[in-house]
Design brief:
The chain contains ten helices and ten strands. It has 333 residues and is of the alpha+beta class.
Amino acid sequence: MNTLSKKNDLIDEFDIIAKFFTPLAKDAPGTFGLLEDAAILPTIDSHQEWVVTVESIVCNVHFLPNDPFELIARKALRVTLSDLAAMGAKPYGYTLTIALNRDLSDSCYLLEKVSHGLTIDQAEFGIHLIGGDSVSTDGPITLAITAFGITNKAKALRRSAAMPGQDLWISGTIGDGALGLQVAKGILSKQYSDLAGRYRLPQPRISLGCRLSEIAAAAIDVSDGLILDASHIANQSKCRLVIDGGALPISESVSRIIADHSEMFELILTGGDDYELLFTAEPEAIQKIKQAGYELDIPITRIGRVDSGEGVDVLDHNGIKLNLLIEPGWTHF
């Protein structure tokens, strides 16, 4: 890890590593106390394979400037773990790169909060830091996490395995993240603070993803919006996904908001930040899916089907295609 700019309050580079990051790696074999330039990953069984993913979160893009910094760190880790969940992989460890603005006067305080937040989630998800980097920048605060997971060979869930005749399912509820951002920005009432919590601290469905590797066909996590992420499955599987708008699982808070602001229905379809698992499965898998949901205490809802054709259609309560979508979801470019 490299040191940050001396314009702020940071101490020596190696003291930074020892104080904030080494404790996060102390139980991870092959990290050597973060005193080497790289870590050594363990040898895994011949029937297993590695799954690797990286996510970056940037101030004013993925989080707000006044969000608690320990929650920012936890969100950065969780959205990366959600990628592993979508492929049915069990997390092993992660690296962290953090870029702090060189003019910050409280960098030590922020790094302490980062370390504390990651300590909490390492305990929850059974993983450890295995390396990383720290840099200064003239730009916004940025955290990038690379996560390593393990799955059984030929069992990784892909976006390209959906086939006509399969059912379309989703875990949890949708719309909480998108409307939670509206609460966090003060656009919606603070009485819906539970939604802001869902935006700031998503729940990666790791245990469910591992179970689905034996049940589901295609899968993706809903990060950029239900419609856009569904379209990735449709495009890569060369099929059409049909979503029953009346079957969408929404929380009580989202239901109340939609009752008062019907125009926000589109946002629950396109807003993203839910990090729920959207997946397809054969109709005969229904009992296994329900059993997994029951045992893991995770609601799982059938919301549509896979047909021949292309693209994604959303139907209303009468089975008529909705034509209200302007943008299918979030894109950076």
